[in-house]
UniProtKB/TrEMBL annotation:
Claim: Chaperone is one of the keywords in the record: no
This protein's name: D-2-hydroxyglutarate dehydrogenase
Description of how the protein assembles with itself and partners: Homodimer.
GO biological process: respiratory electron transport chain
SUPFAM superfamilies: FAD-binding/transporter-associated domain-like, FAD-linked oxidases, C-terminal domain
Record Pfam families: FAD-oxidase_C (PF02913), FAD_binding_4 (PF01565)
Cofactor(s) of this protein: FAD
Keyword Metal-binding: yes
Domain FAD-binding PCMH-type: 40-219
Molecular function as annotated in GO: (R)-2-hydroxyglutarate dehydrogenase activity; FAD binding; metal ion binding
EC id: 1.1.99.39
Reaction equations catalysed: (R)-2-hydroxyglutarate + A = 2-oxoglutarate + AH2
Family (UniProt): Belongs to the FAD-binding oxidoreductase/transferase type 4 family.
Length: 467
């Protein structure tokens, strides 16, 4: 009997797993063995669906005993192959650990299981007149365990921060099989190392998150959206500075004329205004009082007088705000037909203009036939570089050429002291480039930390770095 078969037999016989909690059919292996990346073929040996922390612990202990690697799986919406099982691993899916638990109104705190979907948490918060602000396009399918594992960001980071800011406590099963209850939801806890923050962003390489205590916020009031067009990129940054100096923005998004061209050709959204410009920003802010709206209009008029803004539009209703948001939210779906090669990078906001100029020069001088689509959360320095495949070029040739571009792109990221992965994690796709953002000494420290929590290297082996 193989090691995997022995583990499955033990799970069924001694640990209460029923038939629905273990799958080995080819369709299931294909479905749960991959995420949104297309770079690696899934090849897991089994899919396991634990229902409790104790069942997770039993699986981890058996995996250590039989030297079988475990790959955690949430909503599988990742873009770095962090949830891909390509080498016979057992996939640990949190689909059946999807319950929202105790709510603490005085603390604005809720306990959840790792398989809770982001949108499910957002709806729970809304039902209690509260708000969970970490938001992104995959909110309807991404799971909180995966969000925690990658420290997910999204469209509201400029105001509310990353996932890390909202995790008040974690229950985890380490790679050794120990159950740890980290911080237990407290705001003030000065009792040494906060191990909770090691697990946030660790991509399942230290252990498995099973439960979390999530902080909630008051909901924003009377959100208003502006879309502005400009012809010089430097003016994007001028506008950001002008608004941030006087208004607390909840979002500041950026996209270029290539994105608008593709959106309009796709026909799902309307032109924001008659003029076509080279660059666009979408900014959002709370306007519950008339003076805030007056201040926003005054800033907009000043930007027009300065010559920074060519044209603009402001929402007059919730429905109009939602329509304007589609200009940003539909970009990824629209350009997907062009087989984009994606890079998710970040630099200090101060460096963004020079960084984009350098990257545009690299791509245009080395690959004049490649079309580049820029968009991203520019208010927090996060940019999405999308190189679009020429129609006449094969996919293999295109990806090979993009691998060469990668070196130049990440050398530029390193030049500005930035990150090769702003919000999508490292996984396998960014692993070869980690050294552009982390020093060799720092990477050695990361490896030593992993050895403490996962001495047998069974947790998501091959992700972030190789041991």
């Amino acid at each position: 009997m193989t090691a995997v078969a022995t583990i499955i037999q033990s799970l069924k016989g001694s640990y209460g797993f029923d038939r629905a909690q273990i799958r080995t059919d080819l369709e299931s292996l294909e479905h749960w063995g991959k995420d949104w990346t297309k770079h690696f073929a899934p090849a897991p040996s089994a899919i396991v669906f634990p229902k409790t922390t104790e069942q997770v612990q039993a699986l981890v202990l058996l995996a250590n005993e039989h030297h079988i690697v475990l790959t955690p799986s949430g909503g599988r919406t990742g873009l770095s192959a962090g949830a891909v099982a390509a080498n016979g691993e057992i996939v640990v899916s949190m689909d059946k650990m999807n319950q929202i638990g105790t709510f603490y109104p005085a603390d604005r705190l809720v306990e959840i299981e790792a398989g809770v979907v982001t949108e499910q948490l957002q709806q729970f918060a809304e039902s209690h007149d509260l708000y969970y602000p970490v938001d992104f396009a995959s909110a309807g399918s991404s799971q909180m365990g995966g969000n925690i594992g990658t420290n997910a960001g999204g469209i509201k980071v400029i105001r509310y921060g990353m996932t890390r800011q909202w995790i008040m406590g974690l229950t985890v099963v380490t790679g050794k099989g120990d159950i740890l209850h980290l911080n237990r939801g407290m705001v003030k806890n000065a009792t040494g190392y906060d191990l909770r923050h090691l697990f946030i962003g660790s991509e399942g390489t230290l252990g498995l998150v099973t439960h979390a205590q999530i902080k909630l916020e008051r909901p924003p009031q009377d959100l208003t959206v502006m879309v502005l067009g400009m012809d010089n990129f430097s003016d994007v940054m001028n506008i950001l500075s002008a608004f941030q100096a006087k208004i607390d923005l909840t979002a500041f998004e950026f996209f270029d004329s290539v994105a608008i061209d593709k959106l309009m050709a796709h026909g799902q959204v309307q032109e924001p205004f008659e003029s076509r410009t080279k660059f666009y920003t979408l900014l959002e802010f709370e306007a519950p009082y008339e003076p805030i709206m007056d201040k926003a209009m005054a800033i907009f008029e000043d930007c027009m007088e300065q010559g920074w803004v060519v044209d603009g539009v402001m929402s007059q209703s919730i429905a109009q705000a939602q329509e304007l948001w589609k200009l940003r939210e539909y970009i990824s779906e629209t350009i997907s037909v062009f087989t984009p090669y994606k890079n998710d990078v970040s630099v200090l906001i101060t460096h963004v203009p020079a960084f984009i100029n350098d990257i545009d020069h690299i791509v245009s001088s080395n690959y004049p036939d490649f079309e580049v689509c820029w968009f991203g959360h520019i208010g927090d320095g996060n940019l999405h570089l999308n190189i679009l495949k020429p129609e006449a070029m094969s996919k293999d040739d295109f990806f090979a050429a993009c691998q060469v571009v990668n070196q130049y792109v990440f050398e530029t990221v390193q030049k500005y002291g930035g990150s090769v992965s702003a919000e999508h994690g490292v996984g396998m796709t960014k692993k070869p480039y980690l050294h552009y953002s982390r020093s060799e000494t720092e990477i050695e420290y990361l490896k030593e930390i992993k050895k403490v929590f996962d001495p047998n290297n069974i947790m998501n082996r091959g992700k972030i770095f190789d041991m």
